[in-house]
Design brief:
The protein is mainly alpha-helical and 272 residues long. It is built from 13 helices and no strands. Helix 4 (100-113) runs antiparallel to helix 5. The longest helix has 15 residues, at 82-96.
Length: 272
């Protein structure tokens, strides 16, 4: 199915840009009270450590994903009226035009007209999250997962679980973010963006060994994943594995000279 092929490719290779949690620094994993919307420093006063790609996704529902969702958005057979489809189509147009508030209301209307329409629930959750209503996005994203169970061939379940994890991450609810990312991972363990975000959530929880495992897998799946290598290097430093951190710094030089220099500074400067 076109939907399945494209969605997996998007999660595996999408261009990396800043996400909703636009952190300008990565706190030490031991930070007592991390805040997801700003760069954090540890309780011991460690300097902020710049990182990019805070969640590995630029828009909760980006243009590429829009098209793949549309390709599979037929809704529950026999349950979506022409009126509901028309409202959904209008919401798509509003979303593409950047009219998020209008799109949210239209997607909400579509879900009221067809509550069992998984794609409409997913879109409502994604639009709410992108519009800054992270808490409100949780319910429709969970519904989308329930309506597209893990045994379903449609990859909408993975996308909904991934977006749910991002919303929880943005709310600072890292344990719940881990659970959501793990559900996406259980469906397909070969998606580097899922593994990377899971690693970031583990970092926020102070579970560095688990974070290293996920970052390593993200790098194995996508060797050019510079941000994953950078954060893997930082995690190694926290675990006192300087040589392993240096290995990631060397790999970074050909991928992102800026990140390589930053990581090298932390390694050489002993700021850990």
């Amino acid at each position: 199915m076109l939907f399945n092929r494209i969605s997996r490719a998007w999660l595996a290779t999408s261009v990396i840009v800043l996400a909703l949690v636009a952190s300008q620094g990565l706190a030490r994993a031991q930070s007592a009270s991390p805040t997801p919307n700003a760069g954090n420093s540890s309780s011991s006063g460690t300097a902020k450590r710049p990182k990019r790609d805070s969640q590995g996704i630029g828009r909760y529902v980006n243009v590429a994903t829009n098209r793949l969702v549309f390709a599979g958005a037929s809704g529950p057979r026999g349950k979506v009226s022409k009126e509901a489809q028309a409202v959904f189509d209008r919401a798509k147009d509003e979303y593409e035009a950047g009219k998020l508030a209008e799109a949210v209301e239209s997607f909400r209307q579509a879900t009221r007209m067809s509550p069992d329409w998984a794609e409409a629930q997913y879109w409502l959750g994604g639009a709410l999250a992108e519009n800054g209503s992270l808490k409100d996005s949780l319910k429709p994203l969970k519904l989308a997962m329930q309506l597209k169970p893990a045994t379903d061939e449609n990859d909408l379940y993975i996308l909904a679980a991934y977006s749910l994890g991002n919303s929880y991450f943005g709310l600072g609810r890292y344990k719940e973010a881990v659970k959501a990312y793990e559900k996406a991972k259980a469906r397909d363990a070969g998606l580097p963006k899922v593994r990377y975000n899971l690693g970031l959530a583990f970092v926020q929880m102070g579970k560095l060994s688990e974070a290293v495992r996920e970052f390593k897998e993200a790098v194995r799946l996508k060797p050019e994943y510079a941000e994953a290598r950078y954060n893997l290097g930082l995690a190694y430093l926290d675990l006192k594995e300087k040589e392993l951190a240096l290995e990631q710094q060397r790999e970074l030089k050909s991928l992102d000279a800026g990140l390589a220099e930053l990581l090298g500074g932390f390694i050489e400067g002993g700021t850990k």
